[in-house]
Amino acid sequence: MPSLYPRPAHASRRGPLATPAEVAEYLGVPVKTLYQWKYRGIGPNVHKVGRHLRYRWTEVDAWLNAQAAYDLAV
User: What are the Helix-turn-helix domain coordinates in residue numbering (predicted)?
Assistant: First the structure.
C-alpha cells in the first residue's frame, strides 16, 4: 500500500542506517541537538555500532510521526 505522505526524493536512495549528520540534515536541526536529545532521552532511538552512533531511518520516521501527533493548540 503506498504511503499517504510524499517522501523526499532522497529517501529512496538512503540505506537502512544513518549517521547523526544525515539525521540532523533530514530533521533540519544541528547535530549537537541530536546529542542533547540522546542525553535527555527525548529524540529518535539511536544505536551504537562499534564506537559510532547510527539511526535506523524507520525509527527516525516513526519518531517524527509521533511528534506530529501532539496538539500544540491550548
Answer: 19-67
Task: Of 48, 54, 49, give the one whose Cα is nearest residue 20.
Answer: 54
Quick: pLDDT tens for 6-64.
455 455 567 899 999 999 999 999 999 999 999 999 999 999 999 999 999 999 999 99
Cell readout for 11 is 529517501
Residue 18: how many CB atoms within 10 A of its CB? 21
Residues in the chain: 74
Record the pTM.
0.74
CB count, 10 Å around CB of 63?
Answer: 17
Spatial separation of the C-alpha atoms in residues 10 and 39, rounded to whole Å: 28
